[in-house]
Design brief:
The complex is a heterodimer of chains A (419) and B (226). Chain A has 419 residues and is of the alpha+beta class. Chain A folds into 2 domains: 196 residues, no CATH class; 183 residues, no CATH class. In chain A, helix 1 crosses helix 14, helix 2 runs antiparallel to helix 12 and helix 14 runs antiparallel to helix 15. The two termini of chain A are 33 Å apart. In chain A, 39% of the residues are buried. Chain B has one domain: 3-Layer(aba) Sandwich (Rossmann fold), CATH 3.40.50.300. Chain B has a 6-stranded mixed sheet. Chain B has a 4-stranded antiparallel sheet with strand order 2-1-4-5, with helices on one face. In chain B, strand 1 and strand 2 form a beta hairpin. Chain B is globular. The chains are: A alpha+beta (419), B alpha/beta (226). At the A-B interface, helix 1, helix 13, helix 14 and helix 16 of A face helix 2 and helix 3 of B.
Amino acid sequence: MNIKLLLTIAKSLLLARWRQTLVAAIGVTFSITMFITLLSFMSGLNDLLDGLILNRTAHIKLFNEIKATKDQPIDLSDKFKSSYHFIHSIKPSNARQEIYNNGAILKALNSDKRVKGIAPKIIAQVFYNVGAIDITGVINGIDVEAENKLFFFNDYVTAGNYIDLLNVPNSIILGKGAAEKMLANIGDVIQITTPKGDRIQLKVVGFFQSGLVELDKVQSYCSLTTTQKLLGKSSNYITDIQVKLNDMTTAPVLAKEYANTFGIDAEDIQTANSQFETGSSIRTLISYAVGITLLIVAGFGIYNILNMMIYEKMDSIAILKATGFSGKDVNTIFVVIALSIGFFGGLVGLLFGFGLSSVIDQIPFNTASLPTIKTYPINYNPKFYTIGITFSLITTYFAGLFPARKASKIDPVVIIRGK
Amino acid sequence: MSQIVLQAKGINKSFHDPITIQILKDINFTVNKGEFVSVIGKSGCGKSTLLYILSTMDTDFQGELLIDGESTRNKKEGQLALVRNEKIGFVFQFHYLLNEFSVLRNVMLPGLKLGKYSEEEVEHRAMQKLKILGIENEAHKMANQLSGGQKQRVAIARALINDPLIIMGDEPTGNLDKKNGKIVFDIFQELAQEFKQTLLIVTHDNEFANSTDRIIEMEDGRIVKL
C-alpha cells in the first residue's frame, strides 16, 4: 500500500515536469544507444580481425623444430655427472622435418574427445619460376576437406573452386600476390623448383586471398599427395599436424601434454598469437570505457535535473513530511523517479542501439584484404544489452541517491517558517 | 475528567546562531480534548517556534512533550512522522497544496499514507470532508485552479482526513481577506462545536482569539496568561 502510494506520487511528480523528464531520459537513451552500437560494432570488428588469424590458425600445431637436442651425449655420461659442461658450437643433427610415426599420432588425436578435428599438413619451401627469375615461395600441402572444415579454406579462395585441388591432378591454388607477380590466370600452367632442384609443372585452379598481403605473395596450396609427389616423399610424409580443440583455452595445457606424449614440438595458439589477444582485449577495454563514460555523463544529467526538481519541490516535500511522510518515504520517491528515468530511457536506448547497429550492418564494406566481408561487421551479443540496461539502472540509481538523500533530510520547519 | 490531548512540560528552546538567545522559557500547559485554544502574542515572542515544537517537527528543545499521553522524546524521525500523520492535522498560513495533484488527491494523500482504510474508503471520506467545508464541487479540479480561500479550505480538509486528535494552525487566516478569513474561522468554530474537534491556533488577530474557548498569551518566550 505504502509503496504503491509512493509510486503514484513519484509518477505524478515525473509527469508534472514531463519536459525535464524527457530531457533526462533522452540523455540515458542516447548513451545506451551509443554504448550498444559502439560495443556491437567494436566487437564485430574484433571478431573479424581475430577471425582473420584465429580461424586459420590451429589451436595446437605439432611439428619437428630444427634445433639442437637438449640432451647432449656428455650429459648421459656418469663420469661427468657432477661437473659443469662447457660445450661450444652445438649444431642440430641432420634430423628429418617429417613427423615420425604420424599414423599412430593421428589415430590417437582422432580418438581424443577434447579434439574437434585435425588436419595434417606439409610445408615445402619452393621457388616459383617466372621466366628467368625465381621467387621464393611456400607450398602448403593440405588435406583439402579437413582444411575446409576446420579452417574455412573455401572462404579465402576468391577465384576457382577449392575442391579442384583434389579433382585435378598436379594442381595449385596460388596466393593472390604470387599470382600477380607470375601473371598467372586460372587454367595456366606454372613451373616451380623444389628444394632438391627438380622442376615441376602445376596447373593453376584458383586464387587464394588471406587478407594479409605479405602472406599472399608467398603462400600457395596443393593437395597432400601433390606435395608429397613434388618433394619426392612417400604417402605418409607430413611435417605438421594442426589440431583444433573444442575449447581453445585448454590449448597451452594440451600442447604440453601432446609434446610429452608424442615426443615432438607443440605450439599453442596463445603463445603463437599472443599479440592478437592483447590487441582485442585492449580494443574491448576501450569500447567499454567509452560506453561507461557516456553513461556516467548521462548520470550527471539526471543528478542535475533531480537536484533542480528537489529545489523546486522543496515546499511539496516539506508538506509531505509535515503530513506524516517520513524521510525514508521521500527518499524512496526520488530514487523511484531516478530509476524510472533510467529504466525507460535505457529500454528505448536498447531498441535504438539495436536499430542503429542493424543500420551499420547494412552499410557496404568492401576491402581487398577481406574477401568474405561485404558489410560492416556487427556482433549482436545479448551480453551487451544486459550490461547496458544494468549500467543504466546502476548509474541512475546513484545519480538519484544523493539528491534523494538531500530531499529526505529537508526539515519541514525551515521551509514552512521561511515563508 | 476531560482527557488531556497535549501536554507541554518545562519546554525551553534556544537558538545558538550567531549568539545564544533563549526563545522559549519554561513553557507548561495542557490542551484538553474538545478545546478550541488560541495562542496570541506579538511578533517574535516565540509562538510559532512553540507550535513547531508542539507539532513534533522541531525536536531540538529541552523539556518534555506528551501527545495523547506519549512522550515524543526518544522517538525516531519515522515514528514522529507517524505521530504527525495519525494524530495531528496542520493548517499553515500558506496552503501548501501539491499542484501536481487534484484537490481530492491532495486531501487523500495523508489518509493513503496512514493506510487504515482502503483507497475507496479514503476517497469517500475525503469527499465527506470536502462537503463539510462546502467545496465538494471543486474536488476534481487541479489544486492550482482554486482561489486562495478555497485552497485554505482544502488544506483544512486535508488536516481532517485522518480524524486527528488535534488540529494545529499557524496564522491560518493570515493570508486571507476579511471575507475568506471569516469563512475559515467559522469552519473552525463549527468543527469545535459540532464535531468536538480539538484545535490549537496561533494567531495575532485578537478578534479571532476572543471568540475561542481559551487564550494563551505569550510575551518574550513566556506564557503570561493561560
